[in-house]
Design goal:
By secondary structure, this protein is mainly alpha-helical. It starts with 6 loop residues before the first strand and ends in a 16-residue tail after the last helix. Residues 92-119 form a coiled coil.
Length: 698
Amino acid sequence: MTEAKFMKKRVTTGDIEPDFDDLCILVHYEIEVTILGVAMARQIIEKSKLIHHSKLPLIENIILSLKESKMQRDQSNIYVRGPKLSRREELLNNINAEKETTEASMNKLEKYVEKLYEDADGKIEATMKILQLARNQNNLEQLLNDDTLFGALARLLREEGNKNLELGENISYIFFCFSNFTQFHQFLSNNRVGDTCLRITEAELDKYRKLLEETESHRNNPKKYELAQKKLEALRQKQGRILSVCYHLLLNLAEDVEVERKMRKRSIVSNLIDLMDWDNPELLMVILTFLKKLSIYKENKNEMARGDAVAKIAKMIGTDNDSLLNTILRLLLNLSFDSELQNQMVKAVLIPKLVDLIPNETHRMIVLRLLYHLSVDDKWKSMFSFTNAMAMLLKLILETPADQFIGRELIALAINLCGNALNAERMIEGDGMKMLIHRVKKTWDPLLMKMIRNISNHDNRCKDVFIPHIVDLSTMLRKCKNEDFLVEVIGTMANLTTAQLDWAKILVEFDLVDFFCQHLVPGYAEDDVVLEIVILIGTIVNDRKSAALVKESDIIMGLVDILLQKQEDDEMVLQTIYTFFKLMQFRETRTYLLTGTQVVQYLIDLLFDKNPEIRKMASQALDIVAEYDKEVAKKVKEKKFQAHNTEWCDITHAEDAAGNYTPDEEGDEYEDEPDYNMNDTLGATTGESWNNIHGFGE
């Protein structure tokens, strides 16, 4: 016989609210259980031949007595864990709980209102009872309908809130209960509750500042200083609770942007910053939450920067309170969008502290986002080199399941940090590069490939570490079907300017010549892919064998077509000219360019381009041509003179056209001038200007 068979349950749903600690939704409910004693009694009588049916009422009473006895025994022996309380309920349950000796009743509300006009003790007792009622949200509307009650409480808070902190605290908590619901905000505004709470906080802070100043004045007197510190700490304890509830109430009212603007005019931001030194977790939680909300506006953010808020926040990073730490990190994340505040964060040595939080799964996402913002500026990237950040990031990357792409926050931070040479070396220590290549071959993750490409940007060991993996990179290049991934693979190979690679062998083994010719056909591939291919060709033609393979294919004609069709794309034009510059260093390819194409004429035209880098690169390529072809040299000399003296030439031609030019009767007015020296206009013909071209340098 089961007990459930003789029990009737009724479930009543209560409050539904968020739990910010466990990140879940709390549903409060009540279960009313009715024991069906009659049914059980009848079944007992039916099965027992010794009990007459006239004894039914007696059996029912006995069953009920047994059930009550069992319930009392269970309650005395078993610890029952109650439902988890929300922050609001925890805050309310902390209010003078020791004074709640009798339960308040709505039927006695008039009596409580009358006590509000008695002495201080009567007012405190009355406000405690009213607070008990206000804690039940079902009573709020009924309490609000009592005009006398609301007006009396608002008056008491204005007149006696600062004089009697206990009374002020009780009344503030009552209004706090109302402030949790937006529909009651207008009533609070009509009674100037927000203004009164601001005045209370300002008055209490003035008391604190005066005592703090007095304490500092006794610093040279140890005894007086110690006594003053005790008084200061006692004042903090006394003020902590009323400041917490007042600021929490104001935080609720600040849902209205106009109300928040009025608070800002009353210096609420600077007041909140001043309270960040207090060792009061409950108060700090409210303050930091309020600052987080305020920080989304530029004016408030600037005031936090002036108030050195970041330095104070940095001291709290080591807290063991996860809820408080979460709020701290979210506030820092809001502030980290500003460059000046980023600077303050770095000066406050936040980077090492944040890196130490990466292993903490609870806060990892926020920490990674925050570190990402700090890693955007190149000048801060090197600071990560003196932490364990790169080892942690590599571990997290490799631990990501092979069937998933790496989280965006994680890989974005890694990409940024690998833009620094020292960080890149930390990333590939040991078998780092081997494991990264192994993973990217399995996942084909474009962002991971982008990080690997950033590593290849750096010289020395960062390039040499790719030599054993050139076959893997070439294989991925030929098999890749994702254009984003393809761009990063080609870009990585294009960065490998080391002389230890036999590019001619790679071109033949993986049939890269055919791949290049195919992708250089206009319209076949996206511009990003074509640009990387042009750069890679410029890297490959470093030796005579590779240049000869390129000459024997249609690659050069493909490059000429690119130059003609992408004239408006400065980066494409610049990289194509550089590739021609490299090809002109070998006799066979130079002869082909001079006799089989119109590249020289195109380069001459580019001497007049608006982009100075393109003009420099074209000039350097023509310098090589001029050394081997006198006719071309003469033409190049003339065009360079025009390019360097465009303004003067334009004026001269204009005067000639108008018939105003009259040379000296005895000869040209420039007859005695020395011959034009080409070296005066060509400038340096070394690779100096090429060092400014993104992605290259020898």
